Amino acid sequence: MKEERDYIQDLTEIRSMMERSTKFLSLSGLAGIMAGIYALVGVWVVYSVYNFNPHDIILLTTGSGGLFPYLPQVVIVALSVLVLAVGTAILLSWKKAKKRGEKAWNATSRQMIVNMAVPLAAGGVLIVILLSKGLVGLIAPFTLLFYGLALYSASKFTYKDVKFLGLIQIGLGLVSVWFIEYGLFLWAIGFGVAHIIYGIYMHFRYER
Fold this sequence. Notes:
The chain has eight helices and no strands. It is an all-alpha fold. The chain has one domain (27-206). Helix 5 runs antiparallel to helix 6 (139-154) and helix 7 (161-178) packs antiparallel against helix 8. The chain is globular, with a radius of gyration of 20 Å. The model is unreliable at 10-22 and 59-65 (pLDDT under 50). Keywords: Membrane, Transmembrane, Transmembrane helix. The chain crosses the membrane at residues 24-50, 70-92, 113-132, 138-155, 162-180, 186-204.
C-alpha cells in the first residue's frame, strides 16, 4: 500500500513539473480583481463625468456629423485603465513567480504573449479606424471581442480557466454589437465584473 502511495505521489510530482515547464502559472488572481476595479472606476468616470453613452453618440455622429466632444478624455481614461491593469498584472505575476522560485519571463510566457499579441494588435488597429470614422459606439463591443479572442488564444499556455473568461468576453462582445445602446454596461460586466469574479475564483483555487 505504501509503495502504491509513493508511486501515485511520484506521478503527481512528475505531472506538476511537466505542467510548470509548459504552462505559465504565475498569473495572479489579485491582478484580475484589480483590473476589474480599474475598469469599473473607468466606466463610472466616463459615464458620470463625461456623459459617455454609446446610444447618444450614435445619434450624434449619424445625425449631425459631429464627434463626441469629450472623446479625447474618454480615450485617456480608457488608456489609463489599460496601463494600470497591465502594469498590475506584470508586477503581481513577477512577485508570484519569484515566490514560486520561477522566472516570470521565460519561453512559455513569451509564447503566451505572442499568441495574445496578434488579436490585440488587430483589435487595436480596428479601434483606431473606428475612432477616425467616428464610429465610437462600436469600440466597446470590439474591445470585448478581440480581448476575448486574445485570452482564448493564450489559454493553451496558462490555466485552462482563462479560456472560459475569453469565451465570456467574446459572447459579451457579440451581444454588445447587437445592443450597442448597452455597450458601456456590457463592457463594465466584461472588463469589470467578470474580471473580479475570475480573480476571486483564481485566488481561492490556485493561490491559497
